[in-house]
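Protein: ParB/RepB/Spo0J family partition protein
Species: Candidatus Scatomorpha intestinigallinarum
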Amino acid sequence: MPAGKTENIKQVRLSQLFPFERHPFKVNNDTKMQETVESIKQYGVLSPAIARPLPDGGYELVSGHRRKRACELAGLETMPVIVRELDDDAAAILVVDSNLQREGLLPSERAFAYRLKLEAMQHQGQRKDLTSVQVEPKLRARDVIAQEVGESSGVQVQRYVRLTELIPPLLDMVDERKIAFNPAYELSFLKQDEQRLLLDAMDSEQATPSLSQAQRLKQFSQRGELTA
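Structure follows.
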């Protein structure tokens, strides 16, 4: 938005607000949600959501998914929204940036958020490559993200992104702290059918693999030696 330009806030019906298609963050009816509901009942929505117009009508939320849910639970029919024209990449980056500073993010939320932003930044870099030989921004996107969110390195960002290769039940176990981050990273290199076999074995043994066990499983998988 150009400096000095004021954005208009409009009241939009909740029924006309749709979630971002690849929204990586969970919207749970938890204690924090109930606190937001009570705040909205008492003070109203203090910070407007951000959305972009959809081609067939309505708006796609970019920021404000939890606020919209809280408004629904509070019995409201509308909420304040800033409407912006955003392309897919800009919208994806804003979705991530508006949520990453929240406390208590789950590993799965970080994983899909980093992946979403990384892909958007890389796509922006590819478009810039059409008119410029400067490719470094695309190559170093993960390092930019690491600096912005306080991760130790771009490698750590990439390790989080790798978790998106886990099948949902295993990723849920990472969120529930039943599988630690480092073993989970190693297990993400297993094929999906191998991950399902592992899940069955974990269920029957009532145990989860250690880091060294996960590393060995990865090696067996890479050599094609992992069998039931």
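Remarks: Residues 129-135 have pLDDT under 50 and may be disordered.
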